[in-house]
Design brief:
Layout: H1 14-35, H2 50-85, H3 91-116, H4 121-147, H5 159-182, H6 187-193, H7 197-208
Helix pairs in contact: 1-2, 1-3, 2-3, 2-4, 3-4, 4-5, 5-6, 5-7
């Protein structure tokens, strides 16, 4: 077997190490999200209203946690979907996968920024740009693997499935890119526009007439 760092595509159990390492990174990132939810500190000698404190101080943290947990989760599912089709690896694929995982590890930072400044345009722009870049990085992994000989088993998908996957990796980051423009009108409207990601999959399934098996 050739050295994956020096030679061409490699196969076998070594590919599982890439998936296991990636899963570990996702697990750490998704755990770090909850660590940013901190209970409000009571003022000594006072009797604070707990329900009011939870709503006023913790709601932004919970909101940011929930959407970030969902985005990390869907990116993990998408990453799992991509590696379902990959049957080999080389240096290029390893580096691109690391580049993608870098944005996953950084997401707790953007999530915290959004929870602290959720009503400010800059925080919304940074968060949307972060998720868009992460999606594009995964799209780059898919594109590289699908166009490099021996890395992807083309027999695992038909033409409709391939077209669906190609459109999906472009449409998802486009939603977040467009939300940056919306943020110049309203930060809240930009955040609400992120809900459009739930419509991307059914629309693309209808366009490509693909059944959606094994896809998010």
């Amino acid at each position: 077997m050739n050295d994956p760092v020096e030679g061409g595509p490699n196969r076998g159990i070594e590919l599982d190490r890439v998936a296991f390492f990636s899963d570990g990174v996702f697990a750490i990132a998704i755990t770090l999200l909850v660590l940013e939810i901190r209970l409000p500190e009571p003022i000594p000698g006072s009797h604070p209203d707990l329900s009011g404190a939870l709503l006023a101080e913790l709601w932004p943290d919970f909101y940011s946690f929930l959407i970030s947990f969902w985005f990390v989760g869907t990116l993990w599912i998408a990453h799992h979907r991509v590696f379902h089709y990959i049957r080999g690896y080389d240096r290029g694929l390893l580096l691109l996968n690391l580049f993608f995982l870098m944005w996953i590890v950084l997401l707790p930072f953007s999530s915290t920024l959004l929870s602290r400044y959720e009503d400010q345009q800059m925080a919304v722009i940074i968060y949307a740009a972060h998720v868009a870049v992460a999606e594009l990085a995964l799209a780059w992994v898919w594109r590289y693997a699908s166009r490099t000989p021996l890395l992807m088993d083309a027999r695992l998908m038909d033409e409709r499935q391939r077209k669906y996957n190609e459109l999906l990796v472009v449409a998802l980051p486009l939603v977040f890119a467009l939300s940056i423009g919306v943020s110049f009108i309203s930060a809240l409207a930009a955040e609400l526009s992120w809900l459009l990601v739930f419509l991307v999959r059914p629309v693309l399934l209808r366009i490509t007439h693909y059944s959606g098996a094994y896809d998010r």
